[in-house]
Design goal:
single chain; alpha/beta; four-stranded antiparallel β-sheet; 8 helices; 35% helix; 27% strand; binds adenosine-5'-diphosphate; binds magnesium ion; ATP-binding; ABC transporter domain-containing protein; ATP binding; nucleotide-binding
Length: 251
């Protein structure tokens, strides 16, 4: 079965009942890179949040299967242990817990789930340190408390650091290019490309073709009004770059 199979997914804002996702169909197989593009407000971020089970949204219809298992009722922690990754959007700083400790906990939780022995701090340091270097992050970053004073660029790099140490079968990357200069974007793209294997997949959301020049998608989807209205290869991204979303014929 595909890694992710979304059928007729509808979802609303829990508090108001306002429908955002209006019937999303999406199939992602092992080893594929998918990109979702679309105007502001088309529902791209909501789709990724609904996939990971963000508490602000309610699934009102359709199905989400991850590795053949129903994802809708699964706890967010279990989704992550099963190999679905989205950057931890921990909204608060966690006093006394460093980024290092936080990453080590997350890695060991997933290792335990996979039947692997826990890593000790020294062992983990030798794993994480080269990754911090590759992302051109300040090594002091690991000692800082979770989420303490992250800049936009640090947040994006941290997202990819999390992914590269924890690993995932499917990574959901929402606008990893936002707020990054060209050099930073290249570091982040190289890190993502370095993680790709024939087994794992990426779903990335972006407004810009420049990310897709660095991480080559197998499929590009266009989202509008809470639905995927067109799917094609990377030439769609080129077309949008040159003529805007209006240049995409819907059929
Ligand atoms: P995109 O990521 O494509 O820019 P979003 O998924 O963030 O779009 O938002 C889609 C639409 O749903 C927007 O009109 C947005 O204002 C609305 N929306 C998303 N989440 C909420 C929410 N929690 N409460 C109210 N409106 C929301
Ligand atoms: Mg937006
Ligand atoms: Mg968004």
């Amino acid at each position: 079965s595909p890694l992710l199979e979304v059928r007729g997914l509808t979802a609303s804002v829990k508090e108001t009942g306002q429908q955002i996702l209006a019937g999303v169909d999406l199939t992602i197989r092992e080893g594929e890179i998918h990109a979702i593009m679309g105007k502001n407000g088309s529902g791209k971020s909501t789709l990724t949040k609904v996939l990971v089970g963000h508490p602000h949204y309610e699934v009102t219809g359709g199905t989400i299967l991850f590795k053949g298992e129903d994802l809708v009722d699964m706890e967010p922690e279990d989704k992550s242990l099963a190999g679905l990754f989205m950057s931890f959007q921990a909204p608060i700083e966690i006093p006394g817990v460093s980024n290092f400790d936080f990453l080590l906990m997350a890695v060991n939780a997933r290792r335990e789930k996979c039947g692997l022995p826990a890593l000790g701090p020294l062992e983990f340091y030798s794993v994480v340190s080269p990754k911090v270097d590759a992302l051109k992050m300040d090594p002091k970053f690991l000692d800082r408390n979770v989420n303490e004073g992250f800049s936009g660029g640090e947040r994006k790099r941290n997202e990819i650091l999390q992914l590269s140490v924890i690993g995932a079968d499917l990574a959901l990357l929402d606008e990893i290019d936002s707020g990054l200069d060209v050099d930073a974007l290249e570091d982040v793209a190289n890190a993502v490309n370095g993680l790709l294997t024939p087994q794992n997949s990426v779903l990335m959301i972006t407004h810009y073709q420049r990310l897709l020049d660095l991480i080559k998608p197998s499929y590009v989807h266009i989202m509008e009004n809470g639905k995927i209205i067109k799917t094609g290869d990377s030439s769609i991204a080129t077309q949008i770059n040159e003529g805007g979303f209006k240049s995409i014929a819907l059929v």
